[in-house]
Amino acid sequence: MKILVAVKRVIDYNVKPRVKSDGSGVDLANVKMAMNPFDEIAVEEAVRLKEAGVASEVVVVSAGVAQSQEVLRTALAMGADRAVLVESDVELQPLAVAKLLAAVAARENPQLVLLGKQAIDNDAGQTGQKLAALLGWPQATFAFKTEVDGQQLLVTREIDGGLERVALDLPAVVTTDLRLNSPRYVTLPNIMKAKKKPLETLSPEALGVDVAPRLKVLEVSEPPARKGGVMVPDVAALIEKLRNEAKVI
């Protein structure tokens, strides 16, 4: 089984994003970047499947600027075998990314595609579902646990009411949730080994994909400051405020 894992370069989750003064977007100058945490979980799951003898090869792919090689090298250091970068300076929206991943999947012919349920920069949570639709493959989102049973993949999903277990015929697309696993720490020897692993660079034009943005961002702004709380002396006062001020009862 070959597994294709999609990863994205985003602002490190420990960094507080800053909005540009003109409101045109988020300021990325001199900001620490890292692999999207949900994608890191997807890489870990793929590597574990390979270590268990279920998968024969793990290929990681990213779409974006040239600096995305950094997150690909991190994935290689985690245990992936080789990497593919679809390099583009254009702002890539979810549909464009899904089309690029579908084109890479057509070249690689994987039996399973893993990616995070969402990216922490835009929280769109759309790419996995659109990719499955483009490929015509079954999908399981918000994966809590995965098991391979012959030509089927058993996935336990996190849903609002608890957990749901589904069986997918391979090939399939799976998006990973936080509780699927805990990604391993990357060691220095593996970082050195990752530098020797193959990393192929492609362009959207070579894949025959138009990545021109279809949506226009009108403005980006900071969220409004949160108002301070109010202490009430007793339950009766709380109910009065909920009824007369908040109008919720």
Structure, described:
Helices cover 27% and strands 28% of the residues. By secondary structure, the chain is an alpha/beta fold. It has one domain (2-244): 3-Layer(aba) Sandwich (Rossmann fold), CATH 3.40.50.620. The strands form 3 sheets. Strands 11-10-9-12-8-1-6-7-13 form a 9-stranded mixed sheet, with helices on both faces. The chain has a two-stranded antiparallel sheet with strand order 2-5. A two-stranded antiparallel ribbon has the order 3-4. A hairpin with a 6-residue loop joins strand 3 and strand 4 (26-27). The longest helix has 15 residues, at 37-51. The radius of gyration is 21 Å and the shape is globular. The mean pLDDT is 91.
Write the layout of secondary structure elements.
Layout: E1 2-6, E2 9-11, E3 18-19, E4 26-27, E5 33-35, H1 37-51, E6 57-64, H2 69-78, E7 82-87, H3 94-108, E8 112-116, H4 127-135, E9 139-149, E10 152-159, E11 162-169, E12 172-176, H5 188-194, E13 199-202, H6 235-244
Parallel strand pairs: 1-6, 1-8, 6-7, 7-13, 8-12, 9-12
Antiparallel strand pairs: 2-5, 3-4, 9-10, 10-11
Helix pairs in contact: 2-5, 3-4
